[in-house]
Specification:
This protein is mostly helical. It contains seven helices and three strands, in the order ααβββααααα. It has one domain. A hairpin with a 4-residue loop joins strand 2 and strand 3. Keywords: Hydrolase, Membrane, Protease, Transmembrane, Transmembrane helix.
């Protein structure tokens, strides 16, 4: 049973990463009909939505694209920033989707931002408390560790509607602005859907691990 469990928490993220890389590699070779770079796509969508206080910068790394709400910056990896592909269009538009959420005070985005300090604390310290609780058979310590982990898991779960909504906004924008056309719509959505799988996988693994620890805690209680 434990072998199956650990196989799942390893294989689920790997499968999601393979889907993302597969979709990106495929559609990064397909040029968009508009021939606009990711940076140009991001700028056009920002301007169309009246957002002029968000900068677009070239970042580093592979698929390291993100929106920084504190600095009001969209950072696009080199392949996305300079790319003319459907993959570059999809990723750039998705990050602008987060900027639009920020502008419109999207509730789930605000909630996720509020959870960041607690989630970071939970990620950093939960396992220390959990290991002490299990090894020393201290139920209170284990329960405290589970509580910290639950905050980190909640962050993962709240991330899902934020990411799905950003992708939905991205599709609406690139279609309405004529950045993509016809068959490109389906292929752009494939890139966005594949990227969303990474968040689904991360949330699923986090929930599974939390459930496992809760079962360990209840088992300790029964053995008392």
């Amino acid at each position: 049973m434990f072998i199956l469990y650990f196989a799942l928490i390893i294989l689920i993220p790997l499968w999601a990463q393979m889907r993302v890389k597969g979709a990106f590699n495929k559609y990064s070779k397909v040029a968009s009909s508009s021939r606009k770079t990711g940076a140009e796509v991001a700028r056009e969508i920002l301007q169309a939505n009246g957002i002029y206080d968000v900068r677009i910068e070239q970042g580093t790394g592979f698929l390291s694209d993100h929106y920084d709400p504190r600095a009001k910056v969209i950072r696009l990896s080199p392949d996305i920033y300079h790319g003319h592909s459907l993959a570059a269009t999809a990723v750039a538009a998705h990050e602008v989707g987060h900027a639009i959420q920020d502008q419109q005070d999207y509730a789930f985005l605000r909630f996720r931002h509020a959870l960041v300090p607690v989630a970071n604390l939970g990620s950093n310290f939960s396992w220390v408390l959990i290991l002490i609780g299990i090894l020393a058979h201290l139920q209170g310590m284990l329960l405290l560790g589970i509580a910290f982990m639950a905050a980190a898991v909640l962050f993962q779960v709240v991330t899902l509607p934020v990411e799905f909504n950003a992708s939905s906004r991205a599709m609406d924008q690139v279609i309405s602005l004529g950045i993509i056309r016809n068959e490109e719509e389906r292929n752009t959505k494939k890139v966005l859907d594949a990227a969303a799988l990474t968040y689904v996988a991360a949330a699923a693994v986090a929930v599974l691990e939390l459930v496992r620890l809760i079962l360990i805690y209840t088992g300790m209680n029964r053995s008392e």
